Amino acid sequence: MERRKEVVVSALQFACSDDIATNVDTAERLVRSAHEKGANIILIQELFEGYYFCQAQREDFIQRAKPYKDHPTILRMQKLAKELGVVIPVSFFEEANNAHYNSIAIIDADGTDLGIYRKSHIPDGPGYEEKFYFNPGDTGFKVFQTRFAKIGVAICWDQWFPEAARAMVLQGAELLFYPTAIGSEPQDQGLDSRDHWKRVMQGHAGANLVPLVASNRIGKEVIETEHGNSSITFYGNSFIAGPTGEIITCANDKEEAVLFAKFDLDQIKSKRHSWGIFRDRRPDLYKVLLTLDGSINH
Questions:
Q1: Catalytic, out of 94, 119, 129, 142
Q2: Residue 124: helix, strand or coil by DSSP?
């Protein structure tokens, strides 16, 4: 009997200190824990090397960026991936000559670096002032053929845009991964986007009939800004959704977590094809999406 194409995915969740060594040690410990429980592809949260520094516009924080080539955390994760035989997307703050990007390197199960994706959508608002630090990504949406599956990986604010998810699945992504850093809003403590955040990504999974993995951090982080201290309490809730958008497993908002789910990709592929959502697409009618204001020009 032909062997099914099954994969076990994992999402990690932890609180970050502002010390690189401590955070990378934590990430490695949790990757090892996920591997011990059978995970093949393991997602670490966004910018896990330190605090989410984008609460403030500070020149000194730009110095946290490092070049992609010979990046120490990527090199360490390459060694770990090879040792364990797992796939690890590695989020990092990239310096590329005079440009800076919120980037992720995809490390295959033999330690090979398959390349990077640079975050396309860059937010700009109180507590999430990323446009000060990051150029808009220039890689376009990408998929990566790993040992276990063809995966699409995008980053945090990208996850609010259905076009990003659809673009990756049109390129053959069998699974979607979103490393994230999101929590409370410094300007409005009454605003809680947690459930909205989850529902949007559940929609991506359901609309494309692919599983989706989201990894977020927890804990309270205080950053000194030009206007005094700013704080964000990150709400965790990392989760894994199935191909109809159903929540398979979800973490809470306070505890470190290692989540797992197993998927039969052949079975999901058959369901995706039989459902007809890609057969019945009408790209000829979607040209309106290319106009600046979404209106039809007559």
A1: 119
A2: strand
